Amino acid sequence: MSATLDAAIALFEKSLARLSTETPIDTYERLRLRRNYGFTAKMCKEAVKTIVDYSGASSMYESNPLQRYWRDVQASFMHITFNMDHLGEMFGKLELGLSLSPKDSLLS
Q1: How far from chain centre, in Å, is Cα 89?
Q2: What is each CA distance from 83 to 38, 66, 77, 93, 98, in whole angstroms?
Q3: Contact at 8 Å (CB) between 94 and 31?
Q4: What pTM does this model have?
Q5: What is the rounded distance in angstroms from the CA atom of residue 1 to the CA atom of residue 47?
Q6: What is the 3-state secondary structure (H, E, C) of 40-107?
Q7: Left, alpha or beta for 56 (phi > 0: left; psi -120 to 50: alpha)?
Q8: How many CB atoms lie within 10 A of CB 22?
Q9: Closest C-alpha to 47, from 77, 85, 79, 18
Q10: Which residues contact 60 (CB under 8 A, 6 or more apart)?
């Protein structure tokens, strides 16, 4: 899991570094960055899930902080901002030269 978390951190830091430049961000770049954030969230969710899965049933007790970490990461990942189905579809449309639909433009 440490490699997964290192990859998530590297992708997130790369995306943040891009935002710190003065270069304007076009729609393609914006969606690529959003895809990166969604994928970073997915990797973090998978890492926490693996830790919880191997921690046994006691990890779900309210007294165990792991259950709270798992719920927080899961709830964050479920937010539309990190929805990889939606982000992947929008990014894929741009990669294939297709136009975004009006609903896509609301979130891009």
Answers
A1: 14
A2: 6, 23, 7, 16, 20
A3: yes
A4: 0.83
A5: 6
A6: HHHHHHHHHHHHHHCCCHHHHCCCCHHHHHHHHHHHHHCCHHHCHHHHHHHHHHHHCCCCCCHHHHHH
A7: left
A8: 4
A9: 77
A10: 67
- In the structure encoding, which two tokens stand for residue 55, read together? 């921690």
Could you list the pLDDT tens digit for every one of the 108 residues in the chain?
789 999 999 999 999 999 999 999 998 899 999 999 999 999 999 999 999 999 999 988 999 999 999 999 999 989 988 988 888 889 999 999 998 888 776 555
Q: Is residue 59 a contact partner of residue 16, using CB atoms and an 8 Å limit?
A: no
- The number of residues in the chain equals 108
